[in-house]
Design goal:
Blueprint (H helix, E strand, L loop, with lengths): L1 H4 L27 E4 L1 H7 L7 H14 L3 E5 L5 H12 L8 E7 L2 H10 L5 E9 L2 H8 L3 H18 L7 E9 L6 H15 L7 E7 L6 H14 L6 E7 L6 H10 L4 E4 L13 H10 L11 H12 L20 H20 L35 H12 L8 H15 L5 H13 L5 E10 L7 E9 L2 E9 L2 H11 L5 E11 L6 E10 L4 E8 L2 H17 L1
Parallel strand pairs: 1-2, 1-8, 2-3, 3-4, 4-5, 5-6, 6-7, 7-8
Antiparallel strand pairs: 9-10, 10-11, 12-13, 13-14
């Protein structure tokens, strides 16, 4: 037992005394203020940090998505960061409605360098931070609580004095008690209020208090408790924007953000697709689209995720995991047969409803899909992918969607079993083209034991709507000329089989539909026969002539029954 071997090494997380918590009964009704930290927090977590062109490409993409606050770097940390910030300003690359945010530690020379980097900016946010948790105080800095608070206060005082160097800048101030999630909650509030006392925010120009889960040390409900406690106990709540910045050490960064928004926060920092130190930051795409599927306008343009993914992968040299919510390659893919069947039925039902009313007025209800892939730039091309776990519904959906073959429902188990065996033999998933090839091989391109060379169907001399069919066939290795009468080509061919002693079946079902359009239209026929031993078998025929399509379907069924 691992616990007995390391007993005492780990201690339970700290809880917050909040017995009348309100956040569990609230819901998020409006989008928060979004701030992307891809160019700073995300960039510093890369094995190969972004170069200038990549940083600019990422910045432009973030602005196009609709981020109005973008943390562009830590300009006092290196010439690269400083020069990039200056380039944005000097080359007038910042949209008029976007605030660029710059991060600095609460150290005087770094603060001064930071202000130098943003000279001339129209809209800016100076983001000041210092570490406040017991571990940081005792292990990293060896300072008391009062000394740590003094660092924050003096840093704020210097920032305030330097504001006059930016007379034409709309400047906002942000303070972060780093490692807030692991800081004593009363002490975190004490520091933040000391900072507010120096900064003197107003209702019209509030301070941004960023309360980060720099390390996720507890479940998301504890973080929400901390945010609600903080909001309820601070002296001048209406003079502060409460901001979140969650990391994902426990795998619940997105949940922590959403619960903390319910607890009273109104701003979120994060990154596209969750890139960040260690296990990453919370994923802004997930959080925004979670709001969308809950009926809340996220106020970000995520209607085409694929090019956003492309930019992200180019700039970070990282790949989006296949199972990443909303954006991964496989998130709109179903391998399970029962899932495929349910998805197909959902699509079919919605298509009928959309024919009757305005499409966007119908609530989205498709089993296993929380969002319409079209709303985020994804397509149905990979919704159903076929492997050995697939079922009848998925195969039928692929054949219908990609090749126009609307198979009778009773035929679904047959083709599903055939395709399942093919995928099992190949030990991989099948592409839609391979599914179609299996269908053609099984139902269309079979000429044993019976091969039809040619036939003609003419009105019978006996009249009364009768048709006489004459056909040249080969049964096994014997070529024959056969003929029969019926009220159509199919019944006439059945009578011909009977006269030759070839009929050991009865017709059960016959259906037809067209595929294609204009002069390229083909007719597809499906025939089901029932053999004397009780087995039921389908056949299919495809031809530009509707009569021949039916004849070919009967030949197909015969071959599948006797092959």
């Amino acid at each position: 037992m691992i616990q007995s071997e390391i007993s005492g090494k780990y201690v339970p997380y700290k809880r917050i005394e909040l017995h009348d918590r309100q956040w569990p009964d609230r819901r998020i009704e409006t989008a928060p203020i979004w701030c992307s930290v891809d160019l700073r927090d995300g960039n510093q977590a890369l094995a190969i940090p972004m170069d200038g062109p990549r940083k600019l490409k990422m910045f432009q993409t973030l602005a196009s998505i609709g981020f109005k606050q973008i943390e562009v770097g830590f300009p006092s940390a290196s010439d690269t960061e400083f020069n990039f910030t200056r380039r944005l300003i000097d080359e007038n690359l910042i949209p008029d409605d976007v605030y660029i945010q710059v991060l600095t530690q609460a150290r005087s020379h770094l603060i001064e360098k930071t202000f130098e980097s943003i000279q001339g900016v129209h809209k800016g946010i100076v983001h000041l931070y210092n570490s406040t948790s017991p571990m940081q105080r005792e292990i990293t800095f060896g300072k008391s609580r009062e000394e740590i608070k003094a660092i924050a206060v003096e840093g704020t005082r210097l920032v305030k004095s330097l504001v006059q160097t930016l007379p034409d800048t709309d400047l906002q101030f942000e303070y972060s008690p780093e490692s807030f999630s692991d800081t004593e909650i009363e002490y975190a509030l004490e520091i933040c209020e000391a900072v507010m006392d120096v900064w003197e925010p107003t209702n019209e120009k509030p301070i941004i208090l960023n309360l980060p889960a720099t390390v996720e040390v507890a479940p998301p409900n504890i973080y929400a408790d901390m945010i609600e406690w903080f909001c309820r106990n601070m002296k001048e709540r209406d003079k502060a924007i409460i901001s979140l910045h969650t990391h994902n050490d426990r795998g619940t960064g997105t949940a922590a953000t959403e619960l903390a928004l319910m607890a009273g926060a109104n701003r979120v920092e994060g990154t596209l697709f969750g890139n960040g130190e260690r296990t990453g930051n919370q994923d802004l795409v997930i959080t925004a689209l979670n709001l969308l599927v809950d009926g809340v306008d996220p106020r970000l343009n995520l209607s085409d995720l694929n090019p956003i993914r492309d930019v992200y992968e180019y700039c970070t040299r990282m790949d989006i995991p296949e199972r990443q919510p909303y954006s991964g390659d496989l998130v709109f893919t179903a391998f399970s047969g029962s899932h495929q069947d349910a998805i197909k039925k959902g699509f079919d039902r919605r298509e009928k409803l959309e024919d009757q009313t305005e499409p966007n007025s119908i609530p989205w209800q498709v089993p296993y899909l929380s969002v319409d892939p079209r709303d985020i730039g994804r397509t149905y091309e990979a919704i159903i992918r076929i492997n050995s776990q697939s079922g009848k519904g998925g195969v039928a959906h692929v054949l219908s969607r990609d090749f126009g073959l609307d198979l009778p429902k009773a035929m679904h188990p047959e083709i599903g079993k055939v395709v399942y065996m093919e995928a099992d033999q190949k030990e991989r998933e099948l592409t839609p083209e391979e599914v179609h090839e299996v269908f053609l091989r099984e139902y269309i391109n079979r000429d044993t034991p019976l091969k039809l060379f040619n036939y003609e169907a003419l009105p019978s001399e006996e009249g009364e709507g009768q048709v006489e069919i004459k056909a040249a066939i080969r049964l096994k290795n014997e070529e024959r000329q056969i003929s029969g009468l019926g009220n159509g080509p199919i019944s006439a061919l059945v009578q011909a089989f009977e006269s030759e002693g070839m009929k050991n079946f009865s017709l059960v079902d016959f259906r037809q539909h067209a595929i294609g359009s204009g002069s390229a239209t083909d007719s597809v026929s499906y025939i089901q026969i029932k053999l004397e031993d009780g087995r039921k078998v389908f056949g299919c025929g495809i031809h530009s002539d509707i009569g021949k399509a039916g004849v070919l379907a009967l030949i197909s069924a015969y071959n599948r029954a006797h092959g």
